[in-house]
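Re-running Na+-transporting NADH:ubiquinone oxidoreductase subunit D to confirm reproducibility after the cluster update. Everything else is unchanged from the original entry.
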Amino acid sequence: MAKIRTRTFFRKGVWEENPVFRQILGICSALAVTNLMTNTLIMGLGLIFVTAMSSATVSALRKITPERTRMMVQVLIIASYVMMVDIFLKAYLPDISEALGPYVGLIITNCIIMGRCEGFARNNPVWPAFLDGVASGVGYALVLLVIATVRELLGFGTLFGMHVMPSGWVPWTIMIMAPAGFFMLALFIWVAYELEYKKTQPSHGDK
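Result of re-run:
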């Protein structure tokens, strides 16, 4: 039963209720950091950590948090975990911290985290809230990594900084520019909905 429930959380977070291509949330950072896979991976892991821990904490405090001040409490909780991520990056991964710049701090304003805290964590026990936060963060990170794979491959000819394209490869400069993030996200959404549409259409044998 527990396994089925866990699978359900991840199915919804990764596909059925994916925060990026289903709910169009958190797309600012999705467009800003996806020109390099390493930065994207770190950003995704940071958001998974913040979403999961914030949801678990909000759930643990839900019975003693006053209704009228719950939003301020949630923002304070989220900000605390974002500061942990920021301090960790500055201490152990300073180059990536500098490359991500203000986008780490802006995790506080990411709609995905507040949405899961307000929409799920404050009405459910700690463990389901934690799983819901992890699943939503994984769904966000996977979409960003798919977009980053295409942008870095075509824009730099590399994957995680390692050259994989032939020596004569001419980089597509536009892929490392911000507009490419919009194009790739739109393409991803189109492909995802096409797959969903074909999946829901009855086959000829069913007629």
